[in-house]
Amino acid sequence: MRTVGVEEELLLVDNESGDPQALSTAVLALAERRADGDSVFESELHDHQLEFATEPRAAMSELADEIRRWRTMAADRAAEAGAAVAALATSPLPVSPSIGEGERYRWLAERFGLTAQEQLTCGCHVHVSVESDAEGVAVLDRVRPWLPVLLALSANSPFWHGRDSSYDSYRSRVWGRWPSAGPTEVFGSADSYHAQVKAMVETGVLRDEGMIYFDARLSHRYPTVEVRVADVCLDAADTVLLATLVRGLVETAARAWRAGEPPEPVPVSLVRMAGWQAARSGVEGQLLHPLTMRPEPAADVLQALLAHVRDALEDSGDALSAEAGLRDVLKRGTGARAQRALLADSGSLRTVVTECAARTRG
User: Fold this and answer.
1) Among 111, 240, 292, 342, which one is least packed by beta carbons within 10 Å?
2) How many domains are contained in the chain?
3) CA 153 → CA 78, 188, 291, distances in Å?
4) Which reaction equation describes what this protein catalyses (predicted)?
C-alpha cells in the first residue's frame, strides 16, 4: 500500500488578542527532536509560522493520531513561548509579516518584494509514495483536473488583514502570485517534466528547484508525488480526509497509466478557472466538474471525486471513512464556514482566532 505523509503549516498567535506572533525561533528552541536528531518542527518563510511533517504512514488511523499529536505538541511548545497555534490558512487580523532569518529567506524577500512580504499563508501538503519518476509524472498528468476539488474541500481562509475577502480560500489567490505556482499542462513523460523544471530554474527567476510551486509536483526530496494545492484545514479530521482522497487519486491515476489510459486533455486555462471557482465558494456553491469543466453543485462534484477513486479506496480499506468524512464536511462546512460563523456569533475577528486556536489544540 502506498504510504502517505502530511506537512501542515500553523499560524502562531497571541492566545488572548489573536494577533499573529513572530515567535517561531523561540518555539523551535523548545521543540523535541526525532530519533534521527531532526526537529519535529521547522521554520517557514515568516516568523509567524510553524511547520510539522508526519512520518510516512500506510494506515490512515496512524496518520490521524500523528497529526493530532503534533498539533497538540505545537500548541504546548507555543504556550511555553507565550503564544498559541491556529490552523488558519491566513490571518483574519491585520499583520505586518516578519520574514525569517537565513540566506534563502533574505533572497526571497529581496527578489520578490511585496509578494514575499505578503505570503503569510498556511497550506497543507500531502506526499504519496510512487515507484518512479515515470509513474509520478503519469500521476501528475492524470490528477490535475481533480486538484481544484481538493482546494474546495480544504478551504479555510475567508479573511485577509481584517476583511472578508469574499473567497473561501483567499490563501490560494495570494499563493498564486509566485511565478511558478498553479496548475500545469500535461507533461507526457518524466524527461519532459524534468526538462521544464530545469528550464524554469535556468531563467534565473527562481532560486532553485525547491521553488517549483506547482499545485502538484514530484518532491525534490522524497520519492513521492506532493500535492500542494490545499489550505491547512481547521479540523484535523479534514486533513486526514484530504490525505485519504489524495492517495486514492494517486493510486487511481497510476492504475490508469499502467492500463494505457491517456490523461484527460483539459487545457491548463480551464484547470486554472476551476481553481478560481473552488477558491471563491469552496463547497458552498458550485464547482467545475473535472471531466466536463461545467458548473455543477459542489456536493455532486465531491461525489464524482469519490466515485472516481472508489476502487482504490475499497482496496485500501478507506471507502467508508471517506464517505463519512465527505458527508460531515458537506453538513458542517469547511473551516471557511466555521470562521464566518464564529464572526457572526461574536462580532469579533479576535474571537475567531482564539477559538480556532482552541480547536487546533483539540
Assistant:
1) 292
2) 1
3) 28, 28, 18
4) L-cysteine + L-glutamate + ATP = gamma-L-glutamyl-L-cysteine + ADP + phosphate + H(+)
